[in-house]
Q: What sequence folds into this?
């Protein structure tokens, strides 16, 4: 019984955090949103060199969670869930380059299909190559969504396991995004003064942020517990989605008007959390799935 | 990262499960806050103790098994899964005993711990006063030095003292230095509730039963041998109790996981017994409430394993105890509210769920209100500025 990261896993997390902290991920995300993929693809290559695209096939789900929490915390753009979680298990091999997939009806669009080397769609329970169609604008401007049309089928691995790993990775990403918003909100309320004192000294602000801390603290063990198979991934997604969403709403509220601007970097995470809450299965889908498993 | 139990832990689990299956009363005991129920609960404690299950984590010399923290959590899980009675000795074994182990003299340990373990002596906690609730450090009950007799004379009033209506002994803080302010000049005393000068007045709780009491002290003599820790050091001695009460010990995950499983059973029974929708018994949203309560119970279970890992590695609970307390107290209410929603118009009729619901309502209030806990989370974990002077002195 040891429910904490091993030393190796802790080292992996630290090295990833140090890489991303100095990589201007916000700049890459903003460029990606405006259609300039170059910084994001350069970052993609660095992360692939660190082994991120082979975690799903060569490491454990815990390492996948560590990686995706960092991707969420730093708002790294691109179809990472698709390339590093879903497709490696769906194809039964590591993905070369950037790949994306749509899994309708839960994942109706292929993320960033315009920049992907390989585009897939799951249709009639099997995996097929696909061509991108119409572009759809996401609330998260770094997520470029595309309709797809299926072409020839490809041999597929375990699509259910692939979906579950994508759900887990999205949960970890939500956790990272939620943590980032809380950290930024805490920093802001410590320096912003109104009525002669830091707004973080008011109980209304304190209690709201304490509730975010509590929600994230209890979502994390479900994400890691799901990685170990102790609970289903749906429980992780429900809890991480709720916690991150609470963080985004609270983070916006304590920032006031400046939080409502695109200019403030916080907007990147607020919009990302909103998108991820319904990505890879809505909260209603995952709650229904848990209920089904509970009552049989 | 490993959530599996060792062979010896599994053996411990099997032994606990078997004993509980053979010994837990088949019908619930009467409420421990009635005269009849009090006796029944004390008898249950004696039975637990005779089989050395009453204080599993204590040393063998004091009727324990020297169980590890992991084993303690396992025992609690089995205990609540078996539907075993509430612990009438809880104040003593979970709140006072850790302090006695850390600060008590060998003589005090030998005198108090064995009877606590057997349930022969039940302890009441005496913290709050009429004007000192969340702001405990403003307490005004006094201890005056009685040099001639070698002890102290307690005066003043305590209130909301859990179990004091029937308990034998009490523990609490009194101001032994009248010139000292707030956290300074407080001393931790142990005293029999039938001592001369003590008046206990039971207070009926929301359910009408006397789960707590107010206590009046008029020159109650306490010998030096019943001072716990140093004179004037009461606050720091007591705070380790507060940390325990808020943190791991008082609310083990077993309790919530067992309630969550019963909630799922209740939901399933409603589905089986009624056409969904036709009776209104299974409304659409209650399924989602059941899921949320069940998920949170799992979160609490896993979170606790994380805490156990940290404590076993030499870490301490610290302010995380406040994170814990807010979560379990709200989870407890959510679990029971959902059950009442499922019961529909039957919800107001006496039932185990209703008892549990009424009890759960006290969770966000006792052991430090959830407002105080959120302040602690915000200030000590998030590092937000403290209240300015004037708002808090």
A:
């Amino acid at each position: 019984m040891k429910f904490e990261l091993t030393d190796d896993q802790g080292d992996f997390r630290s090295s990833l955090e140090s890489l991303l902290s100095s990589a201007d991920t916000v700049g890459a995300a903003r460029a990606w949103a405006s259609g300039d993929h170059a910084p994001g693809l350069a970052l993609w290559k660095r992360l692939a060199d660190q082994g991120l695209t082979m975690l799903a096939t060569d490491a454990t789900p815990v390492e996948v969670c560590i990686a995706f929490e960092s991707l969420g915390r730093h708002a790294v753009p691109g179809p990472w869930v698709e390339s590093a979680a879903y497709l490696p298990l769906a194809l039964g091999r590591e993905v070369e380059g950037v790949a994306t997939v749509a899994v309708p009806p839960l994942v109706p669009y292929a993320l960033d299909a315009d920049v992907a080397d390989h585009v897939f769609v799951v249709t009639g329970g099997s995996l097929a190559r696909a061509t991108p169609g119409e572009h759809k604008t996401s609330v998260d401007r770094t997520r470029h969504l595309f309709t797809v049309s299926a072409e020839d089928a490809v041999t597929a691995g375990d699509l259910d396991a692939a979906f579950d790993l994508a759900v887990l990775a999205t949960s970890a990403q939500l956790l990272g995004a939620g943590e980032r918003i809380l950290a930024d909100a805490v920093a802001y309320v410590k320096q912003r003064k109104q009525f002669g004192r830091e707004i973080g000294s008011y109980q209304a602000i304190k209690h709201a942020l304490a509730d975010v801390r509590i929600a994230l603290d209890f979502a994390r063990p479900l994400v890691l517990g799901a990685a170990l198979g102790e609970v289903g991934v749906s429980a992780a997604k429900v809890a991480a989605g709720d916690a991150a969403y609470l963080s985004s709403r609270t983070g916006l509220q304590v920032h006031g008007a400046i939080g409502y601007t695109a200019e403030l970097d916080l907007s990147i995470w607020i919009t990302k959390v909103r998108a991820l809450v319904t990505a890879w299965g809505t909260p209603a889908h995952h709650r229904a799935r848990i209920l089904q498993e509970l009552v049989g | 990262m490993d959530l599996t139990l060792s062979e010896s832990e599994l053996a411990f689990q099997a032994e606990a499960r078997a004993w509980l299956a053979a010994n837990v009363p088949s019908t619930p005991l009467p409420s421990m806050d009635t005269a009849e129920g009090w006796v029944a609960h004390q008898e249950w404690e004696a039975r637990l103790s005779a089989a050395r299950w009453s204080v599993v984590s204590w040393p063998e010399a004091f009727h324990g098994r020297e169980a590890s923290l992991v084993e303690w959590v396992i025992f609690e899980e089995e205990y609540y899964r078996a539907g075993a009675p509430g612990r009438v000795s809880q104040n003593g074994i979970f709140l006072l005993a850790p302090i006695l182990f850390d600060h008590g003299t060998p003589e005090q340990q030998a005198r108090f711990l064995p009877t606590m373990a057997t349930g022969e002596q039940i302890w009441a906690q005496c913290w709050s006063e009429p004007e000192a609730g969340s702001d405990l450090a403003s307490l005004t009950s006094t201890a005056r030095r009685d040099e001639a007799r070698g002890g102290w004379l307690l005066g003043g009033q305590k209130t909301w003292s859990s179990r004091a209506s029937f308990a034998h002994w009490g523990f609490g803080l009194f101001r032994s230095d009248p010139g000292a302010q707030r956290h300074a000049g407080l001393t931790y005393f142990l005293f029999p509730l039938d001592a001369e000068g003590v008046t206990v007045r039971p207070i009926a709780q929301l359910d009408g039963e006397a789960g707590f009491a107010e206590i009046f002290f008029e020159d109650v003599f306490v010998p030096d041998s019943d001072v716990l820790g140093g004179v004037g050091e009461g606050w720091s001695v007591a705070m380790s109790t507060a940390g325990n009460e808020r943190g791991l010990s008082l609310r083990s995950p077993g309790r919530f996981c067992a309630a969550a499983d019963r909630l799922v059973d209740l939901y399933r029974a409603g589905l089986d017994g009624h056409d969904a929708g036709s009776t209104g018994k299974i409304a659409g949203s209650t399924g989602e409430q059941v899921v949320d309560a069940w998920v949170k119970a799992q979160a609490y279970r896993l979170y606790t394993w994380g805490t156990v890992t940290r404590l076993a590695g030499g870490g301490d609970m610290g302010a995380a105890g406040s994170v814990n307390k807010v979560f379990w107290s709200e989870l407890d209410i959510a679990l029971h509210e959902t059950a009442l929603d499922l019961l529909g118009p039957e919800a107001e009729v006496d039932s185990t769920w209703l008892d549990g619901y009424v009890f759960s309502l006290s969770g966000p209030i006792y052991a430090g209100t959830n407002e105080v806990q959120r302040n602690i989370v915000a200030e000590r974990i998030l590092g937000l500025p403290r209240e300015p002077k004037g708002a808090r002195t």
Observations:
- The longest helix of chain A spans residues 159-191.
- Chain A touches chain B through 46 residues (CB under 8 Å).
- The domain at 160-295 of chain A is CATH 1.20.140.10 (Butyryl-CoA Dehydrogenase, subunit A; domain 3).
